[in-house]
User: Which sequence fits this backbone?
């Protein structure tokens, strides 16, 4: 990648201060990565400290014809924060202030660099929390959550990021700053806030977020159910929903995942179980008691061989640690892994799981399944060793087949991780040229052109089924998440 | 005067039986503006052909559903064809175990609810006139009712959409599953957009189980301020209520009650419902309010309440002349002073006001009999909104008001972006032109 001209660096440094505009290879190295293993090569990275700083950077980028790429914590799983066309990475991490926390009106105004879990921690003393809870919440930022319309296990009953954001202050491609929505639930005019959420940094840069805070429910029950077969667990998921219960969370892990998690975290998962279900209900005490009883009954009918109800907060935390630490634990089973993100209608879960294992078998690859069973959002994780010749190629092909399977049964290409770089070529599996054209018109309305996060979301002009990009997943370590 | 040539052309495009009789054209008038033709296609392909024809002939289209909210919006700048979508009324896909449903946009809400009820489920949206209102119209006006408190607005329930663009192309976004971040969330743009970016022809939604049992309580307070405080207390108690609406004295009178009210819906398993009702009674007692349970509440309380801002039992644009209905969105803590300002802004007439306090969502209706008073009221309301930090717009107003003020209020900050968006999707301004914000 071409080094950036010194004139640009000088202007950036003049505006932000020398230490907040970096350009040397050593400095840029760290910012080539995100949660995947694709790489991007930024020409500069800047750390603005205000919305006006962000606007100034964009105006400088415009002047020199450089693209910009917003970056939060770099935990994204679809290549969203990678500067694959070079340009200036705008890291929002200095913008990490909680500007207002209003417990009576149940909202907060935050900067995009605020870490997801930190917001809930700040709201906790008021009996409130921020609902969308991706497993990466100890590290990921709210700005990134907005870009990807992030979900999390508790989104089944309560919704995803777009249902919890009331307003966005954004910087547009021409460097102007404007609010979309605000502190009120309704505003007049087109729902541009709704269109920006999930737009993966391609329309504008978010510099403030107004979020809804929800009460921490008075009562909660967490159950763990153990099954001999994955099919039984999937059937149990449908049965619970069929009984008119929408749990606050409903997660599933298969045997491969259990065998990785248990030795690492000692939750109490039997190593020979086919699958475990983690079910959580919340609300008022009487409702929770009634629902728990119904769920236990349903689980027994579905042949759960063991049902455990967490006796206290500590046990509840342990059960959840097992789920949220699953990906990090999988790193013990193989040096490399590739996480997929797809959604299928719940009723198709048993079929899709079975076929996913078949795909794995055909390619000689081990696939672990850990996912948000309640909303059909799967994360098959392919385990492998990149040093084995041809392994990576097989992994990508197998991954493509699994995604194709999700789409073929009426599902979606991505439930939470976004299209980014990873799946842009698959967009034509689900969208016609007219559909993509409508999206391009939205982009044109924002005047974003190819200036904001280029080469993301939209397919390139090359027609293809599976792109064998040179991608290898490296070991992320015990702090990884999915 | 009948436009014979146009009608011939339209018959050729989508079939003679889709052209509605000339004597019905007056039914499709908007603010006195009568279209040249009204047409009711029966398939998405026919809609596409019609929209393409309109593009070729430079004709302005206004989409129609059940006609229950056509009073919303500014006066039309152009109006050639009423595009009636009520024949597109099929359920396309429904799998109860998936808790999702896909429908054509012309299906009536009540018909959809009956279909879902057979599997013990429902779409948790309750705008007024469910027997007439269509899904497409509900989406295009972002309509909701008291259940918004627990279940959210249309934007929170829709998971996929199909739209015919101004050039006749069918475009889809979202899908059939509840988690989906594939591409841009285009569906959000069309919700509340009055069809100005495209004609909605189908949509997919999340649905939820019907509660095992349901009960309604009306709690009478001394003053509306007390009622608002009680609403806060009930909300803070985290009881999982389905609806929590405050009615001022005038609104209460409209449903046959004497004092300001908090209306509450409780649903779920019987044991849980009993426990919640007991707590509601207790909280009411603590504030000196009196609670009582109402049987048949859907007919006697909730539907009349939903209809307060619209009419006294009729549907359509003709009867709204004497009414001015304002909607407001504000911070919950700003509700009490705002209600006070509304109740006193006209010396001779007090409005009927309902509010979902924890959402800062409010509707106020005045019966105004002369145009001058209506205009003063309208401008006064926008001023109050600006002073008190509330977003105010007029949901219904006499034509004379609409001709002089933009019923959507002051232009939003992001209006330039909205204008660009409209220019991208409807460059010739033929989809419901003039009705939307800034007379887009």
Assistant:
């Amino acid at each position: 990648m071409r080094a950036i001209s010194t004139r640009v660096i000088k202007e950036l440094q003049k505006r932000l201060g020398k230490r907040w505009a970096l350009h040397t290879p050593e400095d840029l190295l760290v910012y080539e990565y995100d949660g995947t293993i694709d790489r991007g090569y930024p020409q500069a990275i800047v750390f603005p400290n205000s919305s006006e700083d962000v606007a100034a950077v964009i105006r400088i980028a415009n002047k020199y014809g450089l693209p910009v790429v917003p970056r939060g914590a770099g935990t994204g799983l679809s290549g969203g924060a990678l500067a694959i066309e070079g340009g200036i990475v705008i890291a929002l991490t200095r913008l990490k202030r909680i500007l207002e926390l209003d417990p009576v009106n149940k909202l907060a105004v935050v900067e995009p660099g605020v870490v997801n879990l930190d917001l809930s921690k700040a709201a906790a003393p008021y009996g409130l929390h921020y609902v969308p809870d991706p497993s990466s919440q100890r590290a990921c930022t709210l700005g990134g959550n907005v870009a990807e319309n992030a979900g999390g296990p508790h989104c089944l009953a309560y919704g995803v990021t777009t249902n919890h954001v009331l307003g966005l202050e954004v910087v547009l491609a021409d460097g102007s700053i404007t609010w979309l929505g605000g502190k009120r639930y309704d505003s007049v005019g087109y729902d541009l806030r709704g269109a920006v959420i999930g737009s993966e940094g391609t329309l504008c840069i978010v510099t403030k977020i107004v979020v809804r805070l929800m009460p921490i429910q008075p009562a909660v029950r967490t159950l763990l159910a153990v099954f001999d077969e994955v099919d039984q667990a999937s059937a149990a998921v449908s049965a619970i929903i069929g009984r008119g219960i929408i749990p606050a969370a409903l997660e599933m892990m298969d045997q491969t995942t259990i065998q990785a998690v248990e030795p690492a975290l000692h939750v109490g998962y039997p190593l020979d179980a086919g699958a475990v279900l983690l079910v959580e209900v919340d609300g008022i005490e009487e409702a929770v008691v009634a629902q728990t009883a119904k769920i236990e009954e349903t689980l027994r009918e579905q042949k759960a061989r063991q049902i455990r109800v967490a006796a206290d907060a500590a046990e509840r935390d342990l059960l959840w640690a097992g789920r949220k630490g699953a990906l990090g634990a999988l790193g013990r089973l193989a040096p490399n892994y590739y996480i997929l993100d797809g959604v299928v209608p719940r009723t198709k879960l048993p079929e899709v799981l079975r076929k996913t294992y078949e795909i794995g078998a055909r390619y000689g690859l081990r696939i672990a399944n850990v996912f948000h069973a309640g909303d059909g959002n799967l994360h098959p994780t392919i385990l492998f060793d990149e040093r084995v010749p041809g392994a990576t190629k097989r992994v990508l092909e197998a991954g493509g087949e699994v995604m194709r399977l999700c789409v073929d049964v009426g599902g979606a290409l991505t439930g939470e991780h976004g299209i980014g770089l990873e799946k842009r070529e698959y967009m034509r599996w689900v969208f016609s040229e007219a559909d993509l054209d409508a999206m391009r018109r939205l982009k044109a309305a924002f005047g974003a052109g190819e200036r904001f996060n280029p080469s993301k979301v939209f397919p390139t002009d090359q027609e293809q089924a599976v792109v064998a990009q040179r991608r290898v997943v490296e070991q992320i370590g015990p702090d990884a998440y999915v | 005067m009948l436009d014979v040539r146009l009608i011939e052309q339209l018959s050729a495009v989508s079939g003679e039986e889709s052209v509605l009789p000339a004597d019905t054209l007056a039914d499709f008038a908007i603010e006195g503006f009568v279209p040249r033709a009204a047409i009711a296609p029966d398939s998405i392909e026919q809609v596409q052909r019609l929209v393409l024809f309109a593009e070729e002939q430079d004709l302005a289209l206004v989409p129609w559903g059940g006609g229950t909210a056509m009073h919303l919006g500014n006066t039309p700048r152009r109006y050639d064809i009423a595009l009636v979508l009520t024949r597109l009324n099929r359920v396309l896909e429904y799998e109860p175990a998936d808790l999702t449903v896909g429908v054509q946009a012309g299906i009536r809400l009540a018909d959809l609810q009956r279909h879902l009820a057979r599997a013990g489920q429902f779409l948790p949206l309750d705008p007024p006139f469910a027997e007439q209102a269509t899904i497409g119209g509900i989406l295009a006006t972002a309509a909701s009712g008291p259940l918004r408190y627990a279940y959210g607005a249309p934007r929170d329930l829709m998971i996929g959409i199909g739209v015919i663009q101004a050039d006749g192309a069918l475009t889809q976004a979202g899908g059939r599953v509840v988690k989906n971040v594939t591409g841009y969330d285009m569906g959000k743009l069309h919700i509340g957009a009055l069809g100005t970016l495209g004609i909605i022809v189908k949509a997919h939604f999340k649905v939820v189980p019907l509660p095992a049992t349901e009960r309604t309580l009306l709690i009478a307070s001394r003053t509306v301020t007390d009622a608002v405080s009680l609403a806060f207390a009930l909300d803070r108690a985290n009881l999982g209520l389905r609806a929590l609406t405050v009615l001022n004295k005038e609104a209460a009178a409209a449903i046959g009650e004497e004092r300001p009210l908090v209306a509450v819906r409780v649903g779920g398993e019987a044991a849980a419902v009993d426990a919640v009702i007991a707590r509601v009674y207790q909280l009411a007692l603590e504030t000196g309010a009196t609670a009582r349970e109402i049987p048949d509440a859907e007919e006697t309380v909730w539907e009349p309440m939903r209809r307060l801002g619209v009419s006294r039992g009729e549907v359509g644009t003709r009867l709204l002349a004497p009414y001015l209905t304002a909607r407001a969105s504000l911070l919950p803590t700003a509700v009490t002073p705002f209600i006070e300002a509304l109740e006193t802004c006209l010396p001779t007439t007090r409005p009927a006001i309902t509010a979902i306090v924890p959402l800062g969502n409010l509707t106020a209706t005045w019966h105004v009999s002369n145009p001058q008073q209506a205009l003063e009221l309208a401008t006064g309301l926008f001023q109050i909104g600006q002073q008190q930090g509330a977003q105010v717009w007029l949901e219904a107003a006499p034509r004379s008001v609409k001709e002089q003020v933009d019923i959507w209020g002051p232009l939003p900050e992001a209006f330039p972006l909205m204008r660009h968006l409209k220019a991208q999707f409807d460059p010739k301004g033929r989809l419901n032109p003039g009705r939307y914000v800034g007379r887009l």
About this structure: Chain B has 15 helices and 18 strands. Chain B touches chain A through 79 residues (CB under 8 Å).
